[in-house]
């Protein structure tokens, strides 16, 4: 079983240089990923309890954005796991959040979220960060505070 190191950091609206650097760092190795989740007032979270969440038709209430880099010869992916149900891609477009045209939408599922694949060479870290931050904010039904918690996960 592989062992991973995790670096946790905070991102502020308008100051996402550390997240851009983390995406760049993720592309320097293989089997590395970055997760991003907006900060919300935890007292407003209403998660489906226990085993009922497993049978729910929706993903998490607070969206999680993910960038995965598996290596220079494998498509990279950007995903948004959310609990907003069907048509999330249309809601993003209506809200002015769009993936670059070179990205291929592979999945728009009410429970497992949206996933785009992109060519591993020449990933635009700024575009990835923009989609992760704007997408998680737009798909979050709880007011977001303009802050995110991010993790950079890489093999040891």
Overview of this protein structure:
The chain starts with a strand and ends with a strand. The chain has a seven-stranded antiparallel β-sheet, covered by helices on one side. The chain contains four helices and seven strands, in the order E-H-E-H-E-E-H-E-E-H-E. It is an alpha+beta fold and 156 residues long. It is globular.
Helix content: 10-25%
- Tally the helices: 4
Radius of gyration: 15 Å
- What is the strand arrangement across the widest sheet? 1-7-2-3-4-6-5
What characteristic shape results from the CA principal axes? globular
Task: Show the helix and strand layout.
Layout: E1 4-12, H1 17-26, E2 32-40, H2 50-55, E3 64-69, E4 76-81, H3 88-94, E5 104-109, E6 113-118, H4 125-138, E7 144-155
Antiparallel strand pairs: 1-7, 2-3, 2-7, 3-4, 4-6, 5-6
Helix pairs in contact: 1-4
């Amino acid at each position: 079983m592989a062992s991973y190191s995790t670096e946790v950091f905070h991102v502020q609206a308008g100051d996402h240089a550390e997240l851009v650097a983390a995406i760049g760092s993720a592309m320097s190795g293989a089997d590395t990923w970055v997760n991003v989740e907006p900060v919300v007032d935890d007292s407003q979270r209403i998660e489906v309890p226990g085993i009922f969440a497993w049978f729910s038709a929706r993903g998490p209430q607070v969206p999680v954005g993910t960038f995965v880099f598996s290596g220079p010869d494998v498509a990279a992916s950007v995903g948004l796991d959310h609990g907003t149900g069907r048509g999330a891609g249309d809601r993003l477009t209506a809200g002015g959040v769009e993936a670059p045209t070179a990205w291929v939408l592979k999945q728009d599922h009410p429970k497992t979220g949206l996933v785009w694949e992109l060519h591993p060479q020449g990933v635009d870290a700024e575009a990835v960060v923009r989609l992760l931050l704007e997408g998680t904010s737009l798909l979050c039904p709880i007011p977001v505070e303009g802050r995110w918690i991010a993790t950079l996960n890489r093999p040891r």
